[in-house]
Amino acid sequence: MSELRIATCTFQEFTTDMGTPVRTTAGHPRFALRYKLGGHARLVTPAWELVQQARKGLAEDGYQFQYRRQLTAAGIDAIRAELTAIAGANDLDAPVVLLCFDKLGVAGNWCHRTHFRKFWTEMTGEDVPELGATSLAGPPTLFDI
Fold this sequence. Notes:
Layout: E1 6-10, E2 20-23, E3 39-40, H1 48-55, H2 60-74, H3 76-90, E4 96-100, H4 112-124
Parallel strand pairs: 1-4, 2-3, 2-4
Helix pairs in contact: 2-4
């Protein structure tokens, strides 16, 4: 069986050659997608209360603390199982690409994808690349398949 691979991107920058698109947002996109979502990763989706606090100006470190608490409460095994189920229902050989609205191409921008990638890598040792435009990583990269 193939090993689960995870990447992140925006709804807007995602292309179907990147993998299986997975929603990680509290709300649905209000614009038409050029692709069908493979699923919704509810355990990775920030709690609505956290989204509201961020909109009101919650500092990044406070956001990260609360989001990591949510991820830790869910647990690595449960998150992996949820993502594997989504991948398996679509294409287990393709990475699951966790999507949200926030573009990271501007220096200083961050979102829950940023913090999920750090959390996952720290907890599992597995790299989670960002496939959208980022100020630090240069142009999008794809997994070596």
